[in-house]
């Protein structure tokens, strides 16, 4: 596992996560715009357009927050936030992505199972790579 995580530099892991999360936001925007059906997300449990809008707003907000944290960690946005705070938040991302991977294994939709299971697993590994970097080596 360690070899797998160390295949990427921290910068590559940060840039990859920012790109993945940006693509996920675009995907959710397409759901909100009803270009894609909302039945393919949230384990197929959304029952109305109104419910979809609320759930998708939550998802887009969470993903945007994660991008912000990663931009701060990468120093793409200059900040004075203690690195320990950003590290703690990214540890939280590791846990969320790992739990989401398990949840996606039980998804009722093929898209969530076949696309988002590997995506959340890779995201967990990339976030793990980011937090395991030695201090000051970005």
The mean pLDDT is 91
Rounded radius of gyration (Å): 16 Å
Cα distance spanning the termini: 21 Å
Secondary-structure element order, N to C: HHHHH
Q: Classify the oligomer.
A: single chain
Shape: globular
Main β-sheet: number of strands, strand sense, barrel status?
Answer: none
pLDDT < 50 runs, ≥5 residues: none
Number of helices: 5
Computed structural class: mainly alpha
User: What is the total tally of β strands?
Assistant: 0
Q: What does this entry look like structurally?
A:
By secondary structure, this protein is an all-alpha fold. The chain contains 5 helices and no strands. The chain has helices at residues 2-5, 10-32, 49-73, 83-105, 110-131. The longest helix is centred in the middle third of the chain and has 25 residues, at 49-73.
């Amino acid at each position: 596992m360690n070899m797998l995580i160390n295949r990427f530099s921290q910068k590559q892991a940060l840039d990859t996560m920012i790109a993945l999360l940006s693509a996920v936001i675009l995907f959710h925007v397409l759901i909100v715009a009803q270009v894609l059906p909302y039945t393919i997300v949230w384990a197929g449990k959304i029952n109305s357009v109104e419910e979809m809008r609320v759930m998708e707003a939550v998802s887009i907000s969470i993903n945007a927050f994660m991008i912000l944290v990663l931009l701060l960690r990468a120093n793409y946005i200059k900040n004075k936030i203690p690195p320990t705070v950003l590290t703690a938040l990214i540890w939280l991302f590791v846990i969320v992505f790992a739990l989401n991977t398990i949840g996606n294994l039980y998804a009722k939709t093929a898209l969530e199972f076949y696309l988002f299971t590997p995506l959340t697993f890779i995201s967990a590994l990339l976030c793990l790579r980011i937090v395991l970097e030695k201090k000051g080596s970005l």
